[in-house]
Design goal:
This protein has about 350 residues and is mostly helical. The protein has 15 helices and no strands. The chain is elongated and about 85 Å long.
């Protein structure tokens, strides 16, 4: 059995590394290299991210195992590098004797998944940075700037306005009990990281995330794009539809959709059409049902699923950009409002002192 430390470097493998490995492996196989040598050379291309697994994979292949079986034996279940869909596509390609050609399509699939993930992350980075900078600025203002005014007001003995007293009191609480706040935040993060391992809690959170205004629709389309893309690739590779649904359920990333796809796979095995099975669940929108129905009736289900995935990918990028355009002014106004309240509270007290001096 391979020990845990053998997997530690592999857990850092990104989709970009995996796509580059897959593309390089396809080219090497098409050039006529033996599979074990091709795996060893391709694993070295992404800068060593997959090098920790290459020796084990090559040893398995030289002992007579296929690439899919070698990947399955050396893919950590806790944080898989390749995943079930990847391994299923490799297995189908090996069975059809077209591993080199199928790996090219598999690298395209991996690259598109990475591009969509990057577009969503990029849309969320700027609001997060803006909010973080605002929080740091507010803490600096309350911890280092407000105390100077507090000493000034206390020395003059003047009764400052209510807003100013609230600001000074808040700054005092932050200085005295800021460590409690930090400890609470750290404890909350630790608790959530532990609690998220519970399947019921995670399913509840995922269900609530899908109900978030605007963000929920984006997450839903990300899930559906991932499912439609993996289904299309699996069907093109020759995987049966029920098995393709089972493998795609593993990449959904959401308990509701995973369970829905698994039930749909069972219904398809019983003889139902895919569109009919999906229609029995409220998770799948009408657009998906219509395109799946058209694909089934025209015997081009894989192509229609690929088209559906492209549609959702474009909608996710467009929705993410619109959300960013909406969040930016809202965050700026919110941050500006908080800063303005603090500054107005301090300036108001200073103005009252000046009025007394003039009188």
């Amino acid at each position: 059995m391979t020990t845990w430390w053998r997997f530690a470097p592999a857990q850092q493998v990104t989709r970009r590394d995996l796509a580059l490995f897959t593309r390089s492996l396809a080219r090497l196989l098409q050039a006529g290299l033996p599979l074990a040598d091709a795996v060893r050379l391709a694993a070295a291309v992404p800068g060593g991210a997959l090098a920790a697994l290459s020796d084990d994979l090559c040893a398995e292949i030289r002992s007579g195992a296929g690439l899919a079986l070698a990947l399955e034996r050396h893919d950590p279940a806790e944080r898989p590098v390749f995943g079930r869909v990847y391994r299923a596509l490799v297995s189908a390609a090996e069975a059809g004797g077209v591993l080199g050609q199928s790996l090219d399509r598999l690298s395209d699939y991996t690259e598109r998944a990475e591009q969509l993930s990057q577009s969503v992350r990029s849309a969320l980075v700027y609001p997060a940075l803006l909010l973080g900078a605002a929080l740091v600025s507010l803490v600096v203002l309350l911890v280092f700037v407000v105390p100077r005014f507090e000493a000034l007001f206390a020395g003059l003995g003047h009764d400052v306005p209510l807003l100013t007293r609230m600001i000074i009191g808040g700054a005092g609480l932050l200085r005295s009990y800021g460590w409690v706040l930090l400890a609470g935040v750290a404890g909350g993060i630790f608790y959530l990281r532990h609690k998220i391992q519970d399947s019921f809690f995670r399913a509840t959170v995922e269900a609530h995330v899908l109900r978030l205004p605007r963000l929920g629709a984006i997450f839903m389309k990300v899930i559906l794009e991932r499912v439609a893309r993996s289904l299309s690739e699996l069907l093109l590779a020759g995987v049966s539809l029920p098995d393709a649904l089972t493998f795609s359920a593993a990449v959904a990333g959401n308990h509701l959709y995973r369970d829905g796809l698994l039930r749909a796979g069972e219904q398809v095995r019983e003889g139902q059409s895919l569109s009919g099975a999906l229609a029995q669940h409220d998770l799948f929108p009408e657009l998906m049902l219509q395109l799946v129905r058209v694909g089934e009736e025209s015997s081009a289900l894989a192509d229609m699923l690929a088209h559906l995935a492209d549609i959702y990918a474009m909608e996710v990028e467009a929705n993410a950009k619109r959300l960013l355009a909406l969040l930016e002014p809202v965050l700026i106004l919110l941050i500006g409002g908080v800063m303005a309240v603090v500054i107005v509270g301090l300036i108001g007290a200073i103005t009252g002192i000046n009025d007394l001096v003039v009188r």
